[in-house]
Automatic annotation (TrEMBL):
It comes from Saccharicrinis fermentans DSM 9555 = JCM 21142. The keyword Transport does not apply. Keywords: Glycosyltransferase, Transferase. This is Beta-1,4-mannooligosaccharide phosphorylase. Pfam families: Glyco_hydro_130. One of its GO terms (molecular function) is glycosyltransferase activity. Belongs to the glycosyl hydrolase 130 family. SUPFAM superfamilies: Arabinanase/levansucrase/invertase.
């Protein structure tokens, strides 16, 4: 919960019947905002000191994927480091990495934890921690390859760290369900459980090919609110949209509600056109004590956009639109 940091916000456009709506000034981060970037997209932000900090996916002009730290006073205008994060040794000296992408950031107890898709003989889930977004300490990879979309819960559940992930292949995976795993120490992961699976095409086609966790789940009285991406394969390729689910607080592999319609799908220029057309890929959100939520998402694998909603309305909508 935030008190001093005011999250970015804009009221719903008059007459809109949508549960979530886009910021009128999107995209908030353009593709060329660091000295060497080809694109800046699937990125994660958190409240930090009097403002915000984040970890950003910046692909450079050789189209190598890496993660960069950044800071902002208002959550909209960002200063992103020109150079990628250089990791120090955390709970291991094995900090090899062929590439890094799609970061998430979670504050747990005393530090910020970063998870990302780490290239180690194929994609798997990398973990690091930081106290200040200047020094980062890399830990053991959570899982064997191949895995993507590792997202930590913001607190221990039943005394253990808990992480969502999506086992995958080494390519543009044509399948994918969300699982979760527990760890007593952020090093050894087990007790793997299935959480959310793809839907049948005739039930909800936008999420029938694969689903993957978005930002850090938000704790509410009714459950963990998780934004996720769902994918359909169309005649012209994959299309990534955003939905939401509510997971049981004590036992988060139990899905209470899960959206049948999407909350947001590619529909405007910066989501439909870019290096990979038709992608909305949520990686983070900010929320306040009034229940406002601002979701950060990568658009068309090129830029970052934000969208707004109110948590009680989203939960109500989920209850009425669940499969
Ligand atoms: C996924 C990941 C994401 C990307 C998406 C669409 O497999 O690589 O980083 O946004 O594909 O290209």
């Amino acid at each position: 919960m935030l008190s001093k940091n005011r999250i970015p916000w804009q009221e719903k456009p008059e007459g809109s019947k949508d549960v979530m709506w886009r910021y009128s000034e999107n995209p908030i981060i353009g593709r060329y905002e660091t000295a060497t970037s080809n694109s800046i997209f699937n990125s994660a932000v958190v409240p930090y000191e009097d403002g915000f900090a984040g970890v950003f996916r910046c692909d450079n002009k050789s189209v190598q994927m890496n993660i960069h730290a950044g800071f902002s006073e208002d959550g909209i205008h960002w200063n992103i480091e020109d150079d990628p994060i250089v990791m120090k040794e955390g709970n291991t000296s094995m900090i090899d990495s062929d590439y890094k992408y799609d970061p998430r950031v979670t504050f747990i107890e005393d530090r910020y934890w970063v998870t990302w898709c780490n290239g180690y003989h194929g994609p798997t889930i990398g973990i690091a921690y930081t106290f200040d977004f200047k020094e980062f300490f890399q830990c053991e990879n959570a899982f064997l390859p191949f895995n993507r979309n590792g997202v930590l819960f913001p607190e221990k559940i039943n005394g253990k760290y808990c992480m969502l992930s999506r086992p995958s292949d080494n390519g543009h995976t044509a399948f994918g369900n969300i699982h979760l795993s527990y760890s007593p120490d952020m090093k050894y992961w087990g007790e793997h459980r299935s959480v959310l699976k793809v839907t049948a095409f005739e039930d909800s086609a936008w999420q029938c090919l694969k689903v993957g966790a978005g930002g850090v789940p938000i704790k509410t009285h009714e459950g963990w609110l998780m934004f996720y991406h769902g994918v359909i394969k169309t005649c012209s390729g994959f299309r990534y949209s955003m939905g939401a689910a509510l997971l049981d607080l004590e036992q988060p592999d139990k899905v209470l509600y899960r959206s049948q319609p999407y909350l947001l799908a590619p529909a405007v220029d910066y989501e439909q056109n870019g290096d990979v057309p038709n992608v909305i890929f949520p990686c983070a959100s900010l929320h306040d004590e009034e229940g406002k939520v601002t979701v950060y998402y990568g658009a068309a694998d090129s830029v970052v956009g934000i969208a707004f909603g109110r948590i009680p309305e989203i939960i109500e909508w989920l209850k009425n639109n669940s499969i």
